């Protein structure tokens, strides 16, 4: 735990029904797909918004990073052979579309929310400013961080790790599709893949487990930021935020 995280925990203990004061929720773009091949399923967005509302209503300060896989699937053919930096910028814009969709769904539930973008889109989102983001959280607003880090060659996993550290989050909650946590193989293709309930950051990197990219894992390891990996299923986001053991916990013990 960093000094900032420790000071935050001491200053404002978690509310009843919440194990954390402040967390960052990482959603993949595929989380918004539902049964579609690509695009956004309004029903699935509504389900996620209800989960987020429940966590926020319990008193947890919540920031969100959402990926772009659901939209990028639709432009993969066009992106094939595209310059890598250009393709990454297209992906950043796709995360903004997802962020605005999620913003609308949450506002309909009475949640005060702000979207902050790492690239300039002043007509639809605030620029990312760390102190402003923290102030929004302190005022009880949900903050969605869009456009990744604002730089090509970095994933939204790295953006999630970076933003979580910048705002002093106590943990990253990583909601996954179709898997209950971390396995020693891909359970979708390997029936013998074994579920792993607990890991260190270093073990995750050394074993090459596909949780998040190595840059993001290294950032979390260096700053002892725990990652809770769990299935995106009804009630799970609220359960993890309330302190239930769901899925896999990746952490580095204090020495």
Structure description:
This protein is α/β, with parallel strands linked by helices and 255 residues long. The protein has a single domain (3-250), classed as Acetylglutamate kinase-like (Carbamate kinase). The protein is 40% helix and 17% strand. It is built from nine helices and eleven strands. It has helices spanning 3-11, 42-57, 69-79, 84-107, 130-138, 156-167, 201-206, 214-222, 236-241; strands spanning 22-27, 61-66, 113-117, 126-127, 142-146, 172-176, 182-183, 195-196, 198-199, 227-231, 248-250. The chain has a nine-stranded mixed β-sheet with strand order 4-3-5-2-1-6-10-11-9, with helices on both faces. It has a two-stranded antiparallel sheet with strand order 7-8. Helix 3 runs antiparallel to helix 4.
What's the total helix number?
9
Rg, Cα atoms, Å: 17 Å
Please name the CATH architecture. 3-Layer(aba) Sandwich
End-to-end CA span = 11 Å
Mean pLDDT: 90
Spatial order of the strands forming the largest sheet: 4-3-5-2-1-6-10-11-9
Strand content: 15-25%
CATH level 3 topology = Carbamate kinase
Instruction: Say what oligomer this is.
Output: single chain
